[in-house]
Structure formats: C-alpha cells, structure tokens
Amino acid sequence: MRIAFYAPLKPPDHPLPSGDRQMARSLVRALERAGHQVEIASELRSFSSRPEPDHYAAVEKAAEAEAVRLSAAWKEGGAPDLWFCYHPYYKAPDLIGPGLARTFGISYVTAEASYSARRNSGVWAVTQAKVAEAVRGAALNICFTHRDREGLAAIAPDANFAMLPPFIDSAPPVQRIEGDPTRLVAVAMMRPGDKLDSYRTLARALERLMDLQWTLAVVGDGPCRAEVTAEFAGLPPEHIEWLGQLAPGEVPAALAGCGIYVWPGCGEAYGLAYLEAQAAGLPVVAQDTAGVPEVVLDGQTGILTAAGDITSYADAIERLLVDDDERKAMGEAARRFVLGERSLDAAAVRLAAMLPEKKTQ
Fold first, then answer.
1. Which residue, 104, 132, 265, 306, is most buried by CB atoms nearer than 10 A?
2. Which pTM value belongs to this model?
3. Other CB atoms closer than 10 Å to residue 295's CB: what's the count?
4. CA 91 to CA 49: how far, in whole Å?
5. Three-state SS string across 342-353, please?
C-alpha cells in the first residue's frame, strides 16, 4: 500500500534525538520492510508543552492549512491507501489525518496512541477529545504496551486494537564484545521530570555500593546536566565517566564495553534504550514500573525492582556485580530476546499481518 505517515509529536527528520524520533524512523523502515510505500505526509508539530489556548488555536489553523494542501495534492495525484499516525496524545493530537481519511475514504491507523483521564481540563480536555475521536474512528489502533491499550479501551471499548511489542532496528546485529563486568552504563537525556528522578534514584543506589568495584558510564546530555551532576557529587569522581551526548551510531560501541545496564526508568513509556542495551548483550537493572516490563523480562534478561525502593535497586545491581555467571546468562538471554523477538524484521512481519487491507474504490 501507499501509506501517509504522520508523527504529530516529532517528525522522523526532527534534529533533536529522542526515543520518539527513533521509533518514528523505525516504524517507517518496518512498514517499508513489509513492502509498503511510505511518504511523510506532514512535518507539522501539534505538540505543546503547556495548555495554552493561543498556541492550540495557532496549531489548529496550521493543521487546517495542511489539510487543504494535502487535499489538493491528493485530488491531483491520487490519495494514499492509508494514513498512519504515530503517537497521538493530549499534548500532540492528530488534527489532520482523521478528517482527510473520512473525506477520501481511506483507512486511518494509530500507533502508540494514549489517553489519560486526569488530563481532562482546559485545553487538554479539548485535545484529549480529539485523541478519543481518532481512536474510536480508526480502522486499527496499534498499542505498544498493555497499559496504553487498557487506557484506550476504557474510552473506546468498541475500537479495534492490536499489540506490537516495542522494537529496534537491530540489523545489522550489534557485534557482541565481552565488556568489563564492573562497568555500569546508563543512556538517557538530562531533562526535568522522570529522567531527573531516574538519575537521582541511580545516584542514591550507587552510594550504597561503595564497598564494591564498579564504574558508571553516562551517555546523555540536556538542560538538567548541572542538576544531574550534582546528584552524583557524593560519589568519587573517578567512579563516573560523563560521555555526553553521542550520535546514535556511536551508542552501540559505548554499550559493548560495559557489563550491566542500569537505569531505574521512572515513568518510562517503555524505553528503547533498554532494547539497545540488551541487543549488546547487557542485562538490565530497572524498576518494575510503567512500560518497562514490556521491554525487560524480569528474571530472564534483567532484574526489575519495586518502584521507589532504592535499597532493592542497589541490591539488584550488587547481585549482578558479584554473580558473574548470572550476569552472563542474563546478558546472553537479553541478546537473544531482542535479536529474535524485537527486531525490525519481526516488527515488519507483525505489521504486515495486522494492517487493514487496501480499500476498494
């Protein structure tokens, strides 16, 4: 099919790296791998970090102009067979696709749509209503986590849903290099909220492990760099290596030299970095919270501890630092898990089976 792809939060070619951009790019590649022709329908960002009526009004106006532009182009060159919207939610609703899909009689599909009832106030109530309308009218809603599916089913019980486990483009496979078993690594942006909370949790846990041999490599940067470094100020500086932001192609090499991936994952939707670490053969120590269990198999590819329990989190890191056999076994299982079940090829096969067929005119 000819597929119009749209990511209202962040288009695939956005200059700022993030998990959202990475997944948008991976979805495009997976759809192409499944044999479809994919075109980026629009680069308009409907994202707003705050519920500002004036900003939303401006976005609505821009979306109307985009709809007019696309409608004219489709009337002249033919409409696509399907509109594929990645990650519509209250801060970034799809204000273009649903209307065009109805007008041109094409299938509308969402991927990683989400709905949070506690956001129903002010402008957010308006944008959430747009998300709910899109989900109810979609031919298919592709969910990456069971938590998201349950949230959508609560407001659209008759909608059509399918599960697509989070995946990464692991081809060509990351070469497995036996890293330093005492070298811990974390990959994350330094920004307020959940990311800063995770850095804080990690620092408090590591403070309890000063009687063990370890170093921590930190890959990431961002507006909270000063706050993050302050959280680790109580640790000997020689135990922490600040690698800064690396290009996506440089991250696998940084992971390969390490032994354990440590990231608490406060509020993580799921975390593609967990899959990248496991593809490199690293076991994961994270919290059993949010979408993390969708990408880390507790007791098999890593250890998940109760959210907020810093003692248990520190104990889990210690467990893998001192038990070399368990660390190796989990690392090998992690690599098999990602390369076998969470690869681009696996996602392409799943997408090919679940997408609605091309509508006959």
1. 265
2. 0.86
3. 30
4. 7
5. CCHHHHHHHHHH
